[in-house]
């Protein structure tokens, strides 16, 4: 995946170097790559797990009590304690650990009693799990354009509002806070619940308040690519006791187990009125997550440090547009996402990969990225990506311009520095200014430009 092998030999003569550092030979043109070791990502094992976490998982394994609902009191189970710790961390009344982030999203929608068949608005830029969770909850996704910073665009939602929309599902995509306060106010005006897909922003804050606590419920994942990692898993947080009760029953708290989540009061719902979907978490993963949660602040500091280093050092690069946070620091920092507004982002990402950096152009034609809405084909009767793109033209254009680089919390300042140098090198070679007089546009002869 990583390296030069996927990039064929250049199909056009290389620009002649004038010797300035700007004209350093690109690896995609046969020059020396900035980096020769793999870019650290979770799928290559770059995760934040330590010996205490392993011990915690072993404690649960040795107990032989793997199911969360057994003879023990709720306060003695790993899942029960994890949920209590999540309530303290987020400052919410309730938390429910479940089997995945997608499950948490679907349970939040069903818990909010959004009627089956209703439209649920969500942004056109998110991971495919968001619209999939809407489908899992028996509803239909209604896609909304994103703005230049790739956030759900409230103006577009307002303009295209339809009475069939019964909930808004906002996403803090790639860790950047959406304008969730404005969206919450709009949802209240329309009389529908706002639910947060806060999966990519676990622990990030906006104005001193944790993302995931602005809507009626916030959903999170603990899959390995997220800020808490137990392989697979998720949870939801909420202050809404009825929503919580419904989600608990739906997740699989059968025959009185619902009661365990309401030690001091009657459960707000009768579990027999709801189907049992078996989306529970188990004790081994909850034990691992409890240990990781104690070190989450440390990990968040690393994400922020990496992102600040990279975005700060590249702020003056004219060829790229870095996302502006909705408020200072309102991001997690687990990815460096930028646009190449006037260039070829597909070429830019390929050139970065040749330099040894994992980079993807989200809207690339030759890379089936499931963060691009035209690849959510299950949603459409149409099979023509061009016609699907035309349904959200601005989002389609912006994603065609977007490059995505994962920023693992395991990156060192030297790793970040290599990313910075690689982006500068590729950016310098991508503009006419790089050769003085001759334009040295990167698009190989015969290739289709990304933008008309
Ligand atoms: C990862 C992700 C999910 C899904 O989480 P799973 O635990 O894999 O189901 C949902 N939404 C977003 C934005 C994600 O990045």
Overview of this protein structure:
The chain folds into two domains: 168 residues, Aspartate Aminotransferase, domain 1, CATH 3.90.1150; 243 residues, 3-Layer(aba) Sandwich (Aspartate Aminotransferase, domain 2). 32% of the residues lie in helices and 12% in strands. It contains 13 helices and 13 strands. Helix 4 links the parallel strand 2 and strand 3. Helix 9 packs parallel to helix 13. It is globular. The relative contact order is 0.16. GO terms for molecular function: pyridoxal phosphate binding; transaminase activity. This is dTDP-4-amino-4,6-dideoxygalactose transaminase.
Structure summarized in a few sentences:
By secondary structure, the chain is an alpha/beta fold. Helices cover 32% and strands 12% of the residues.
Provide the fold topology.
Elements (H helix, E strand, L loop, with lengths): L50 H13 L14 H13 L3 E5 L2 H11 L7 E5 L5 H8 L3 E5 L9 H6 L5 E7 L8 H11 L3 E4 L7 E2 L2 E2 L6 E5 L12 E5 L2 H11 L31 H12 L1 H18 L7 E2 L12 E5 L5 H10 L5 E2 L23 H5 L3 H8 L1 E5 L6 H17 L23
Parallel strand pairs: 2-3, 2-4, 4-5, 5-8
Antiparallel strand pairs: 1-9, 6-7, 8-9, 10-11, 11-13, 12-13
The structure holds pyridoxal-5'-phosphate.
Protein name: dTDP-4-amino-4,6-dideoxygalactose transaminase
GO molecular function: pyridoxal phosphate binding; transaminase activity
Family: Belongs to the DegT/DnrJ/EryC1 family.
Q: Helical element count?
A: 13
**What is the averaged pLDDT score?**
92
**CATH domain class of the largest domain:** Alpha Beta
Bound molecules: pyridoxal-5'-phosphate
CATH architecture of the largest domain: 3-Layer(aba) Sandwich
């Amino acid at each position: 995946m990583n390296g030069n092998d996927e990039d064929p030999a250049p199909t056009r003569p290389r620009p002649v170097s004038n010797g300035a550092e700007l004209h350093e030979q690109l690896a995609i043109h046969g020059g020396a790559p900035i980096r020769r070791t793999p870019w650290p990502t979770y799928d290559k094992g770059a995760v934040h797990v330590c010996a205490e976490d392993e011990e915690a998982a072993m404690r649960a394994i040795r107990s032989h009590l793997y199911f969360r609902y057994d003879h023990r009191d709720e306060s003695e189970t790993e899942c029960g304690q994890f949920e209590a710790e999540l309530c303290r961390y987020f400052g919410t009344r309730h938390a429910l650990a479940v089997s995945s982030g997608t499950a948490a999203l679907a349970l939040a929608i069903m818990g909010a009693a959004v009627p089956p068949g209703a439209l649920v608005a969500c942004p056109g830029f998110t991971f495919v799990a968001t619209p999939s969770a809407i489908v899992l909850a028996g509803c239909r996704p209604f896609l909304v354009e994103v703005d230049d910073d790739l956030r759900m665009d409230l103006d577009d939602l307002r303009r295209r509002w339809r009475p069939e929309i019964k909930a808004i599902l906002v996403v803090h995509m790639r860790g950047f806070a959406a304008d969730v306060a404005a969206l919450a106010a709009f949802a209240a005006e329309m009389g529908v619940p706002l639910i947060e897909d806060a999966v990519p922003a676990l622990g990030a804050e906006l104005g001193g308040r944790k993302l995931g606590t602005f809507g009626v419920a916030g959903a999170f994942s603990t899959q390995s690519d997220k800020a808490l990692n137990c392989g697979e898993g998720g949870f939801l947080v909420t202050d809404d006791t009825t929503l919580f009760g419904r989600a608990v029953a739906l997740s699989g708290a059968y025959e009185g187990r619902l009661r365990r989540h309401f030690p001091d009061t009657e459960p707000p719902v009768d579990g027999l009125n709801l189907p049992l979907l078996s989306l529970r978490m188990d004790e081994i993963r909850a034990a691992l997550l409890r240990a990781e949660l104690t070190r989450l602040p440390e990990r968040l500091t690393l994400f922020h440090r990496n992102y600040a280093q990279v975005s700060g050092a590249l702020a003056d690069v004219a060829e790229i547009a870095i996302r502006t946070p909705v408020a200072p620091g309102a991001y997690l920092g687990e990815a460096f996402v930028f646009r190449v507004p006037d260039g070829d982002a597909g070429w830019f990402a390929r050139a970065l990969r040749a330099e040894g950096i994992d980079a993807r152009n989200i809207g690339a034609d030759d890379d089936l990225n499931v963060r691009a809405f035209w690849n959510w084909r299950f949603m459409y009767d149409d099979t023509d990506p061009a016609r699907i793109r035309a349904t959200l033209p601005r989002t389609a254009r912006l994603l065609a311009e977007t490059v995505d680089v994962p920023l693992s919390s395991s990156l060192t300042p030297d790793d970040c520095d290599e990313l910075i140098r690689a982006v500068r090198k590729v950016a310098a070679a991508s503009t006419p200014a790089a050769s003085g007089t001759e334009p040295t546009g990167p698009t190989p002869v015969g290739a289709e430009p990304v933008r008309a």
